[in-house]
Structures
1.
Amino acid sequence: MDQSRIQSLITSIQQELIPQLIVESVHPHNPAEVRFIPPPWELLGTGNYAAVVYHPEYPDMVVKVYAPGRPGFEEELEVYRRLGSHPAFSECFYAQEGLLVLKRLYGVTLYDCLHRGLRVPPQVIRDIDSALDYARTRGLYPHDVHGKNVMMFEGKGLVVDISDFLHQEKCSKWDNLKKAYYCLYLPVLYPLRLRVPYSLLNMVRKTYRFMTSFSGTIFHLFNRLIHRKSLKK
């Protein structure tokens, strides 16, 4: 990336964006809300911790701004530091407290591919697998990798959200998605190019979350029962 363009964007951030942008944390479990964004800056999206904006004159970069009181900035910065430069991930060009300047990733999430009936070739899955393996070699722990956090662009796979890659607990979301891809999507949906309504996708997503939460609770209770029995011996 051209350093002069990065510096020019940083100047615009400091002089125009930061003094006027209002990002609020209304509820800790809901996405952050943007109350005001100065023109010509535009909102790209919001997450549970931050808002992502961009300047039309710098379409190849985005600015991620954490809402006051929301955690995760230091952890995300460390993840980008470890990742360095990799084609399947974004890259951090600049950081200051609560703000990251990142390479913009273009593409369609696998979630939206299902909705739009876009074919997701196996190469996309292999690319994402390879990217996650690379992250592990950098001392990271791919976490919360699901259909809304990975994208397809020109037949290649990209990983969008890396903010939880310091979490060491096991996460099976990507493994479960791959099973669904090879067992159901590739033999059935891929040839037909069916468009799946968002209502059905959301129902599947909520059912999956309930089932994983339920199974996790059962596993926890089972472990407690085993532990109690071992203490009585």
Note: Confidence is low (pLDDT under 50) at residues 214-223.
2.
Amino acid sequence: MTHTNYLRIGRIEYTNAWPVFYHFADEIRNQQVELISKVPSELNRSLSEGRLDMSAVSSYAYGEGSSSYVLLPDLSVSSFGAVGSILLFMKKPLEEIRNGKIALTTASATSVNLLKIVMQKFLGGSPSYVSAAPDLEQMLKENDAALLIGDDAIRASWAELPYEVMDLGQAWRDFTGEGMTFAVWAVREAVTSRYPELVRGVNEAFQRSKERSMKDLSPVIEEAMKRIGGTASYWRSYFTGLQYDFGQSQWNGLQLYFRYAKELGLMNQDVHLRIWTDNTVVQVNS
């Protein structure tokens, strides 16, 4: 529950969101906030249940709760092509995988449903799915392919494994010509009404944090090398290959994702992007 002048904010644990969060604590200064780090699926649930006031969440989770949420402007985790950390590892050729058995990470609804769109709408397949812990070896014991996301996918991509790999960001671009937005910054709409100045201050701090990171990625890269491994060149390529803005290009790709999800019965409602700016909510139309 929100207390006066106090916001509980969800932070995605994965490195893909680090440039937005890295300098946030410095930039928020004396504002009263609490950052809570979890994987996307746990943040999604906490925001929907009101245990968070604001969070970086899976885009799919925003779609499910869009009637109660608004989006902070110009903040996302997106890619226009390869994302590098949402990967399908395949023991068999794709032609067989599309009607085979796929193990899914339970960590992100956006990626799971993106895979289902690719398999069903673009490849005409109908695979069977099973949820599993993010252990690639175990996932592939009884399945033909396995979906990993975030740092689990990155670590697996570094190993010399005998599997074909599909990058879902690249697959989405290949089939649609659009970019894909994997995470957005959502706020419970009631919170923006009750504490507009605090929300404004938090939004501005996120914007400054993002700008500082993209101006000089060195400290973010050093932290990633220390905590995850890998080389400086890998992380520089990874972070610069992602997009942290949320403008017309990202809106177009995300609205198409929501449209396909509804067409395939993966989402039961039309989704409109409702963006909060200076206590005004603007709806983005297709």
Note: The radius of gyration is 18 Å.
3.
Amino acid sequence: MLTLEEEQSIWDVLKTDAVSSRDKAIMVLALLTGIRAVDILNLKLGDIDWQGDIIHIFQQKTNKPLVLPLLPAIGNALVRYIMNDRPESDSPYVFLSYNAPHQPLKEHSACYAIVTKIFARAGVRSGNELKGTRLLRHHVASKMLRKGVAVQAISSTLGHVKPDSTDIYLTTDEEKLRDCASTLSIIPMKVRELQ
């Protein structure tokens, strides 16, 4: 998961012109929703309900529906890209290559490259640490957990089919884990004498 400082550094870069509007939209989607890279790349214009402020997709991995809130930061980033920089195309996909013939971005590596480029500009995770949308998915879940959001709600937000898929994120809440450990240390222990 990202530290508060790392997340702020990323937002600072996203406020500049150093990142294209397409890449900003991809990063904001991943950073605020935890959506999988494959689902970002498969996002279609028709999946965005501007009136209802939601994004409705069928997840590639599970083939299950997922409804995400169209938060203002996400909506604004998408509008800037779609209205100002998205190449003219009949493609139903939101995110297109900038080079003709303006094909939809399809490879997971496209999202990874975008996220790592933004991380580099922000001075975040410049070593061999985990990067990409997987880290951002983990980050979203961890932030929700720290805010006291129920595990079932986190599971639903991330589009997990099995609620126990969210268990991996439970290990990221270090403060709660420390509380558990300190609570255990005050439990009186009775030692039975061996006979």
Note: The chain is about 50% helix and 5% strand.
